[in-house]
Write a structure and sequence with these properties.
Number of strands: 0
Distance between the termini: 26 Å
Largest sheet: none
Order of helices and strands: HHHHHHHHHHHH
Helix content: over 70%
Low-confidence stretches: none
């Protein structure tokens, strides 16, 4: 891969993974706009791990508290806390994507990566995000989520196997519909991304590594580092301004993105 291609794709992934705009749509669009060959799934997975490391670093304090209270709650003397409860909700919300992802894994790697599907998902789920943000009460934090709501967010996340949907976008949409504030919806979405990216990335990566005898590790490592930097900056500023800006700017962007994808392809 050319250095410019690595740079553009890694920064694009880092900037779009946690914004509700669909990183997969951008990873399909960038090569077409700049005339690059498709980078393939293995590079996409590598730069997703860069984003994963960024969100773990950003939420490290909350993750430490959740993990400590969760494992302590499993002991005979352990007490149930808000953090241990949140840990269980993250596990419950992860279950749907595990089963649905395994069932539709083949489609995710081939048929669903078509430009018309990506463009339609970007526009359609973008409008749904606008409706959720416009009509939501936005009163509760992530610690108020109970198991039924966690499952609802989990099934919403499962829709993200359709490229263009945006994993963060659809989970934030569902959380807003359930009454969470914008920041709380984003935090739960980010926490939920950790097991999701880790499991889905590891699953696909193992298959691809078996089928790919040689890989350019320099390209992959560079992509991970650049994606980490871009994602860290993106998360920081997104969380600072999300309550002020709302979701409308991202909705407008998603609609324009879908139109551009269709225009480039057609």
């Amino acid at each position: 891969m050319e250095w410019l291609q690595i740079l553009l794709l890694a920064i694009t992934q880092g900037l779009t993974e946690f914004l509700p705009v669909s990183s997969s749509a951008h990873l399909v669009l960038v090569p077409k706009l700049f005339g690059f060959e498709d980078q393939g799934l293995i590079f996409d997975i590598a730069i997703h791990f860069g984003s994963l490391f960024a969100v773990i670093f950003y939420l490290r304090k909350q993750i430490w508290l959740i993990s400590g209270d969760f494992f302590q709650s499993l002991t005979p003397q352990g007490k149930k806390t808000d953090n241990s409860q949140l840990g269980w909700m993250i596990i419950i919300a992860t279950l749907p994507i595990v089963f649905i992802g395994l069932i539709f894994k083949g489609l995710m790697e081939t048929d669903l990566r078509s430009a018309p599907i990506i463009a339609s998902a970007s526009i359609g789920f973008g409008l749904l995000l606008w409706f959720a943000d416009y009509s939501a009460k936005r009163k509760n934090n992530e610690y108020s989520i109970h198991w039924k709501q966690a499952l609802m967010i989990g099934f919403a996340q499962a829709l993200a196997i359709i490229p263009g949907t945006s994993r963060s976008g659809i989970t934030i949409t569902a959380a807003l519909m359930l009454g969470l504030t914008r920041r709380a919806a984003a935090r739960f979405s980010f926490l939920l991304s950790i097991p999701t990216i880790l499991m889905s990335g590891a699953l696909v990566a193992l298959d691809l590594i078996k089928e790919t005898p040689s890989m350019n590790w320099g390209d992959l490592i560079s992509g991970v580092i650049l994606s980490f930097i871009a994602a860290s900056l993106c998360i920081h500023f997104f969380m600072q301004y999300i309550e002020k800006t709302g979701m409308l700017p991202f909705v407008i962007y998603r609609i324009l993105l879908g139109v551009v994808i269709l225009w480039v392809v057609i």
